[in-house]
Amino acid sequence: VKPSVFVHHAPRSVGEALAVLAEHGHDAKVLAGGQSLIPIMNMRLASPGHLLDINRVVGLDTVEVTSEAVRIGALVRHTQLERHVEAFAALPLLRRALVNVAHPVIRNRGTTVGSLAHADPSGEMPSVLALTNGQVDVASARGTRTVEAADFFLGPLESCLEEDEMATGASFRRFPGGTGMAFAESARRRGDYALAGVAAAVTVVDAVITAARVSFVSVTPTPDVLDLGDLLAGVGLQDADWAKAARLASEHVDPESDIHASAAYRRMLVGVLTARVLAEAVADASARALGEAAAIDAADALAQGA
Amino acid sequence: MTETMSPDAEALLEITLRVNGVVYTARAPARRLLSDFLRHELRLTGTHVGCEHGVCGACTVLADGSPIRSCLMFALTAQDYAITTVEGLAQPVERVEGTRDSDGMDDPDDPDGTGNSGGMGLRADHGTVDNGTADKGAGTGRFTMSPVQQAFIECHGLQCGFCTPGFLTAVTAYLLENPDPTETEAREAISGNLCRCTGYQNVVRSVLRAAEIARERGTGR
């Protein structure tokens, strides 16, 4: 099936793009990677009268790593972020989640910010944005604003973006030192939408858990975060009750039954995956601590040598 | 500048596309998918159209050397990339037999900016045999199969052939990045392409064999 007729706009700057949205926003869609939008248009589930193709807009394709966050522009492709060495060092969760986004060929084209704006509860990256307490940079001809992840997603496929607004970038906030991260999902076939997915971040200080949070894919209407601090904070690594945490996660989510899996099965998956990612996150925290210690030792050795 | 057209008239836009090193211009509406533009306007029917929502992988082509779904890109957007289709994979005979550079690069100038080496058969500087345009490199009009094409023939990596153009382009790009994949990696590499005939076993073998052939040819055998 083919897309219906639209007017194509190819602005060269954010300003030009926002001008188009100011005029046609009620009947326009922003095209970045198009790996969700174009299928929807091909199937005629969406037939916008105006297509705002931002692929020629300059300055939206950068990845910035600061001490606070990993910030990406609206034209950063999933593959670009996945392979970004500094971004991986700062926030390994990004790559661990991104490799689950569809297939490599789709990731070559699809953008991470586009996936956030699409606000699909089956998307991996909205869930990661939520877990990292990230932010979305929003612009319109009226001005700019920064929206917290918790306020960005309103419902399935619904973000808080107004008709004349576009997401120009997003920031994934870095975790405190000692935090390990993990992501796991289960799908019928490699690259399919996950039946369920869980992202975890666990902070460990001196073999004691100080914080533990998980977020979900495909089993909540919006990518919300479950704080397991009440259960796990202050608990020594030997005494952590993953089974109880898994049960809490299963009870927290609100999956739906469909042709691919029943709600009960998805709920069960959430429990299994939660226990798995929590354990992996703890292992990751230890590995990162060792890595940091080794790096510090090496720096000390260098300093002493000099 | 912002480009606009009237939706009522279904206006035709002039679209200029670089495909397999040849520049083509044709008129098509804004909503023309790259896959359809290649097949209908340019008559390059090697690219196959399966699902039209990015699942089957049959329409995979390379944009600046990177595999993408041509059914999920508009022809208008594709103007900013050098496109390689399955028709661009075979290598002109004399290039293979005589004039290969020692570094394995087909064309040091790389006018398309695809950054692809010739080892996997990506040609940035030649057209297809039948396009009738000047094609300085293919004087004899004779082409030899690229390593990936050759491997799919040797290992029976296809039966009906519908999915094959997508496999060939995706695998070609994959092997440039990972010239020596394990079987597991080969499976992962083709996970985005559906085949209803082969059961994939021979496709996996083809990927591994293609890597071998590329190595054999790359060492100037």
Give the secondary structure arrangement, pairings included.
The complex is a heterodimer of chains A (306) and B (221).
Chain A: E1 7-9, H1 14-24, E2 28-31, H2 37-42, E3 50-53, E4 63-65, E5 69-73, H3 78-82, H4 85-90, H5 93-98, H6 104-107, H7 112-118, H8 124-131, E6 135-140, E7 143-148, H9 149-152, E8 153-155, E9 158-159, E10 166-173, E11 179-186, E12 196-205, E13 208-217, E14 225-227, H10 229-232, H11 242-252, H12 263-305
Parallel strand pairs in A: 1-3, 2-3
Antiparallel strand pairs in A: 4-5, 5-10, 6-7, 6-10, 8-9, 11-12, 12-13, 13-14
Helix pairs in contact in A: 11-12
Chain B: E1 13-19, E2 22-28, H1 34-41, E3 60-63, E4 66-69, H2 75-78, E5 82-84, E6 91-92, H3 93-97, E7 143-144, H4 147-154, H5 164-177, H6 183-189, H7 201-218
Parallel strand pairs in B: 1-5
Antiparallel strand pairs in B: 1-2, 3-4, 3-5, 6-7
Helix pairs in contact in B: 4-7
Brief digest:
With 306 residues, chain A is α+β, with helices and mostly antiparallel strands. Chain A has helices spanning 14-24, 37-42, 78-82, 85-90, 93-98, 104-107, 112-118, 124-131, 149-152, 229-232, 242-252, 263-305, and strands at 7-9, 28-31, 50-53, 63-65, 69-73, 135-140, 143-148, 153-155, 158-159, 166-173, 179-186, 196-205, 208-217, 225-227.
Structure, described:
The complex is a heterodimer of chains A (306) and B (221). Chain A is α+β, with helices and mostly antiparallel strands and 306 residues long. Chain A is 38% helix and 25% strand. In chain A, strand 2, helix 2 and strand 3 form a beta-alpha-beta unit. In chain A, helix 11 packs across helix 12. The longest helix of chain A is centred in the C-terminal third of the chain and has 43 residues. Chain A starts with 6 loop residues before the first strand and ends with a helix. The model of chain A has no long low-confidence stretch (mean pLDDT 96). With 221 residues, chain B is α+β, with helices and mostly antiparallel strands. Chain B is 29% helix and 13% strand. Chain B contains 7 helices and 7 strands. In chain B, strands 2-1-5-3-4 form a 5-stranded mixed sheet, sandwiched between helices. Chain B has a two-stranded antiparallel ribbon with strand order 6-7. Chain B is globular and about 50 Å long. At the A-B interface, strand 1, helix 1, helix 2 and helix 6 of A face strand 4 of B.
